[in-house]
Amino acid sequence: CDMVFAMASETEKAHALLQTFSTASVISSLGLGIFCFVADRLLQFSFIQQNDWLRALSDNAVHGILGMWSWAIVIGLRKKSDFTEVTLAGFLASVIDVDHFFLAGSLSLKAALTLPQRPLLHCSTVIPVVALTLKFIMHLFRLKDSWCFLPWMLFISWTSHHVRDGIRHGLWICPFGKTPPLPYWLYVAITASLPHLCSFIMYLTGTRELMSIKHGIRIDV
C-alpha cells in the first residue's frame, strides 16, 4: 500500500514538472528573457546615462517590471485581483534600492550612488533569511493559508533584483564575500527560469495547492 502511495506521489510530481513548463509559461519566460536584453540596451541611451535621476529611476523601473513579470508567470493573470499581487511583487523588487539612501543617511542621489560599501538588503544571504522569517511569522499568527504566497513572492522579487545587479557587481554572499560579475547570459537564464523553479518547489511544499484554493482555480504554470 505504501508503495502505491509513493508511486502516486511520484506521478503527481512528474505531472507538476510538466505543468511547470506549459506552453504559455515557456512563452512568457522567453518574453521575459527578451525584455531583459531590450531593457538593458535601452538604458544605454546617452540621454539616460547622462542624467543620474533618469538613469536611477529607469534602472529601478526595470527591476520592478522583472519582479512583476516573474510573479505573473507563477500565478498567471486570470482575474483582476491577480494584478494586485503582481503589483506587490514589482514593488518588492524595486523598494530594496531604498537601502542605498538609508546607508547614505541622506536623500541625495549622488550620496546614494557613491557608497563605500553595498547596503544590507543587497546581501543575497538576507533573502532566504527574510523569506524564512516571514514564513515563521505567518505560521505564528496563523496567516500561512491566506498569505502563503508572500515568502515566495519576496524570494522571487528580491532574487531577480540581486541577479540583475550581479552582472555589474557580482553577488554579495555574506559572510563569504562576493562573486565575480555574473555573465550576461547567466543573468538572463536565471531570470527566465526562476519562476519555473520556484513554481515547482512551491508544488512540492504544498504552497501551490493552497494558492489554487485562494485563487479559486488550479494554478497551471
UniProtKB/TrEMBL annotation:
This is Transmembrane protein 267. The chain crosses the membrane at residues 16-39, 60-77, 89-109, 121-141, 184-204. The gene is Tmem267. InterPro entries: TMEM267 (IPR026572). Coiled coil: none annotated. One of its GO terms (cellular component) is membrane. The keyword Membrane applies. Keywords: Membrane, Transmembrane, Transmembrane helix. PANTHER family: TRANSMEMBRANE PROTEIN 267 (PTHR13628:SF1). The keyword Membrane applies. It is a multi-pass membrane protein. It is found in: Membrane. Its main location: membrane.
